[in-house]
Amino acid sequence: MNTAPSRVATVLVSEGPALSGDSGGTRLATALLAGSPRVAPVGPQACRVDARGWDRRGGETVLVRTLRGATLSAGFTGAWAGVANAAVVADAAAMLAKQLDGQRPNVSSLPVDIVYEEASIIVAPGTGPAFLSPLPLSFLPLSYEMRETLRALGFRRIGELAVRDRNELEARFGPAGVQAHRWACAEDVRAFRSLVADELPESSLELDGAAVTLEPLLFVLRHLLHRVCSDLLRVGRCASRLSLELRLDGSTTTQRAKVLPARATRREDLLYDLCRAALERAVDTNGCLAAPVSGIELRVEETAPPGARQGDLFTGDWRDPMAAAAALSRLRARLGEEAVAWPHPRAIHRPESRNRWRPAASVETPEEDRARSDPSPGTARIVSADGTIESTLHLLPDPVEVDIWASEGCPRELRDRTGRRSLLVTEGPERLSGDWWKDPYRREYFRACTEEGELLWLYREWRGRGKGKVAKWWLHGFYD
Amino acid sequence: MRRSAAIVQLERQIEQIESKPRGPGGSVPTGVSSLDTLLPGGGLPRGQVVEWLGPRSSGKTTLLRATFATLRATGESIALIDPARSLYAPDWTSLIVGEGRFWVIRPPDPAEAVWCADLILRSGAFGAVALLASTHTVAADGVDPLLRRAVTIRLQRLAEEANAVFLTVGHVPLAALRLSFRAGRVESVQKAFGPFLSSVRPIWVRVGKRGAVEVPLLCPVSPSWGPEPARDRKGPAT
């Protein structure tokens, strides 16, 4: 994290067909993401963008060219930009550029150092007050009453207001007077955050109207991702963890969601699917968000170097591990973290507690499992040298209570919803007990084969003590 | 200008690749040699849906695990979709170690199972995919409503494009190749191995239609609760 001096660009666009409809402002904002990762609409025809960092990317002339180019490409017929240290100065510069409308000003006649480039004005750092000074009051975002009152008092230029004593204005106009004086002095707290994580790409956008459905957020998300992935590409990194933050309208609270690709990636389509799945969890059955959203921020929290593997032209069965990562990520995003799993049994005797699956968080085989591996353990354990194969158990998620007729302690007939079944051969009991200190259990397990050849895993469990002791039979699983 | 020998060799290799027929091909051994000899191509065909059909306890999952263990040793990625969430984790730990990659997909809703299979096959990154049946979704006629003909055709096409083995375990999707499983009758067990099941029990696998040869497999049933040795949390004695 480093502290960067504030630098803001304001972009104004002309009215036209591109602005028509509710999505015009959003379209302008998303187009401007081409020039900056942080964009905030400030009106139906204006957006403010964070202009820091362009000194390392060709200078602010390149920035204004980029912003104008993106705006015109998005279908807007005219675009003007202003860049300055304070938002109020940038706004004024953009308005001046629009008034000039392509007529190059006589720079030498101006009292300050500005650059006129592509219908845009760049105000040098530290010259904001001097730039504002000759401009009329209409270049400040004052209320109608304040502007008319100041005019009635004889104020015409911003500089005339700036030279007055701030306390005097406060005594006459209150907080509004102080604010007007601050703006006249090019002091503006409306800036983007001063702390920039220059190593971890991020992108955010304030919506011009609060979104209540997912659709506008998904539209914006594509542009945010394009921006973030471009930044990742530029620095040669991939995202291994991202966070998606929704700013709720009229509230300081936010909703956050983590996005964890199975493998570090900068593929836009994959990350879009994962982010989309994360957003879809925030909507109800009617497709509406729980609360209106006024802004969205996408932040890369952790990066990793690209882990591409070398393919082999001469082996036709080579498979792309990134494609596997993408598929597993989509499964996890839609079905939940637990849905893609590795077996991870616990060292506990009780079968349902022993049967544990852990989320497969990555596509790589876990190192701890590699450490336990031998050259071909799976084959050795499952198929023995004489060709016999160990049977596989299916454990019912919840044991099913069954009615058993037993003789000499062994189950002989099973009755359940499907009818009666004779248990021709049984083996057992295998006694299992434990957990006396928290949840005691005492069971007798039997393997029983039905007439149809089904091999069932049954147990009898006692509950209670003394004369109140009751035994019940349960079907816990079957072999297949 | 004289071209280097390396370029000439490369050209030959490219010609060899181009001369090979494109499309799905090859087969995957099941790990049971007697069964492989019956299968066309010496194993389960790639790029094709294979029915893995039989009643409960007929050995479907047992042979599936053996096949996956064999396949895993070749380094292929494997996915097993378990919509019923009934697989017992200790039985499958040996498949996550070593070269191959193995994942179990446990969708919270069984109805999502086909979507999972579609997505996994579509990625083209998996050498084998198995879709287990969910007891909740199989209809009275034995045909899984999730695997109707149109769905099966789509999955068949995806398996072909991915050149992957796609096994539908317990479903009836009307695939070209069917492996029918049958559990050993109790009489057979008693006759061959005595009154108890603790030793071995046979299962039979039939390949294709009538007239195929049955293959007996011996499956010892072992207790499934032997705990792994717990780690000693105490440090070494000093």
Question: What does this 3D model show about the protein?
Answer:
The complex is a heterodimer of chains A (480) and B (238). Chain A has 480 residues and is an alpha+beta fold. Chain A contains 14 helices and 20 strands. Chain A has helices at residues 24-32, 60-73, 87-100, 128-132, 144-152, 158-162, 166-173, 175-184, 214-235, 268-280, 321-335, 351-354, 367-372, 377-382; strands at residues 2-3, 8-13, 38-43, 46-50, 79-84, 114-116, 120-123, 195-196, 202-213, 238-248, 254-259, 288-304, 340-343, 357-359, 393-407, 410-416, 419-434, 441-450, 455-463, 470-479. In chain A, the strands form four sheets. Chain A has a ten-stranded mixed β-sheet. A six-stranded antiparallel barrel of chain A has the order 15-16-17-18-19-20. Chain B is built from six helices and ten strands. In chain B, helix 5 (149-162) links the parallel strand 6 (128-132) and strand 7 (165-169). Mean pLDDT of chain B is 75; it is low at 190-197 and 224-238. Chain B has an eight-stranded mixed β-sheet, sandwiched between helices. In chain B, strands 1-2 form a two-stranded antiparallel ribbon. With 238 residues, chain B is α/β, with parallel strands linked by helices. Chains A and B meet through helix 11, strand 13, helix 13, helix 14 and strand 15 of A and helix 3, strand 5, helix 4, helix 6 and strand 10 of B.
